[in-house]
């Protein structure tokens, strides 16, 4: 089932999410619905706060990036195969020289900006069977994980922009929060915009 994606301006996107355990109600169904929602919106990642749930759960599937010719064949192969569910994730380390990449977000449609992040991360997380993993990721996979991880920490990619960039996009963000945007996937807008 495709779930509505929460739009910029909703308080759930700014809240630090809570850990869950294997008894979380209907978890398998939620994960399946989140994948369906992400694919329906042509996303490469989706976090539970983006569907209105303040829990430490996010998914990543980088296969759409495998079509990009700017990556080597080896990188394309890695991107094509990477699909993972992260529960109760914790970034243990981030290192390397920060690099810029143009990021967007399903909760903030039609806004894309360069964000600087470190290229290598070490993450501890549980998979959908609650098996604990500690893994190192780099490059674009690390970036998508960092972006989704930010969501469960209550941080949006726009929070990482300079104050100058924030001023430039302020009008767009206001319009999104008021539902004044055309999108081709289901969204839920903050309550204040529903009173119009």
TrEMBL record:
Transmembrane segments: none
InterPro entries, per the entry: Peptide_deformylase, Peptide_deformylase_sf
Cofactor(s) required for function per UniProt: Fe(2+)
The entry's keywords: Hydrolase, Iron, Metal-binding, Protein biosynthesis
Co-factor note (free text): Binds 1 Fe(2+) ion.
Catalytic center residues: 148
E.C. numbers: 3.5.1.88
A Pfam cross-reference name: Pep_deformylase
Residues where Fe cation binds: 105, 147, 151
Catalysed reactions, semicolon-separated: N-terminal N-formyl-L-methionyl-[peptide] + H2O = N-terminal L-methionyl-[peptide] + formate
GO BP term, example: translation
GO MF term list: metal ion binding; peptide deformylase activity
SUPFAM superfamilies membership: Peptide deformylase
PANTHER family noted in UniProt: PEPTIDE DEFORMYLASE
Function comment: Removes the formyl group from the N-terminal Met of newly synthesized proteins. Requires at least a dipeptide for an efficient rate of reaction. N-terminal L-methionine is a prerequisite for activity but the enzyme has broad specificity at other positions.
Family membership: Belongs to the polypeptide deformylase family.
HAMAP family assigned to the protein according to its UniProt record, in alphabetical order: Pep_deformylase
The protein's name: Peptide deformylase
The species this protein was found in: Winogradskyella aurantia
Organism ancestry: Bacteria, Pseudomonadati, Bacteroidota, Flavobacteriia, Flavobacteriales
């Amino acid at each position: 089932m495709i779930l509505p994606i929460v739009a910029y301006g909703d308080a759930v996107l700014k809240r630090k999410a809570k850990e869950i355990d294997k008894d979380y109600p209907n978890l398998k169904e939620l994960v399946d619905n989140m994948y369906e929602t992400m694919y329906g919106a042509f996303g490469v990642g989706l976090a539970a706060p983006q569907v209105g749930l303040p829990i430490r759960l996010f998914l990543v599937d980088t296969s759409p990036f495998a079509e990009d010719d700017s990556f080597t064949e080896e990188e394309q192969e890695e991107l094509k195969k990477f699909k993972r569910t992260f529960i109760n994730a914790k970034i243990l380390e981030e290192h390397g020289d920060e690099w810029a990449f143009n990021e967007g977000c399903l909760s903030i449609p039609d806004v894309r900006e360069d964000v600087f992040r470190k290229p290598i991360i070490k993450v501890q997380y549980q998979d959908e069977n609650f098996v604990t993993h500690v893994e190192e990721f780099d490059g674009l996979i690390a970036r998508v994980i960092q972006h989704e991880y930010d969501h469960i920490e209550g941080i949006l990619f726009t929070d990482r922009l300079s104050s100058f960039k924030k001023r430039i996009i302020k009008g767009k963000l206001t319009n999104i929060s008021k539902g004044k945007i055309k999108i081709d996937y289901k969204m839920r807008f903050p309550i204040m915009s529903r009173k119009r």
